[in-house]
Design brief:
Helices cover 11% and strands 35% of the residues. By secondary structure, the chain is mainly β.
Amino acid sequence: MRGNIVQVSIGEGGLPKNAIAGGLIDFLGLEGDRHAHPEYHGGPRKAILLVASEILERLRERGYPLFYGALGENLTTRGIDIQSLKPGDRLRAGAGCLEITEPRQPCSLLDVYGLALKSEIFDPRVKAGDTASPYWGMSGLYAAVLEPGLVRAGDAIEVLAPVT
């Protein structure tokens, strides 16, 4: 499965994250990215947050005022089925290598886009780690960085080793 990175984003903590041309992904995240609550976000197992542009577009069609970076993602992707990814799946993103670790649990900061948004992208099954939930991956997936490297908008992103 192969797609591309449509936006690389960083922020000062909180939402949204803002587009940059590209940057270095390292073991603790994307260079220049900050987390307002590092006890919940960031660190080696939550270094990078991926969100699919296709999911953002579906949510916009439902009336949510979303845009790339709105959900706090570092990499907005197109062309890979985020909802089919599972913990342990490995991806090449630009020059870096990532491993999916867990789904992102939405917080109250997303309420700015609509109070019902969290219930449309996350459910108790996702919280329990059920990859068969229809909501799996909709809130984004965290990834650990296995190999640091540069990543830019337009770079390829592809699944290297899916978990079977």
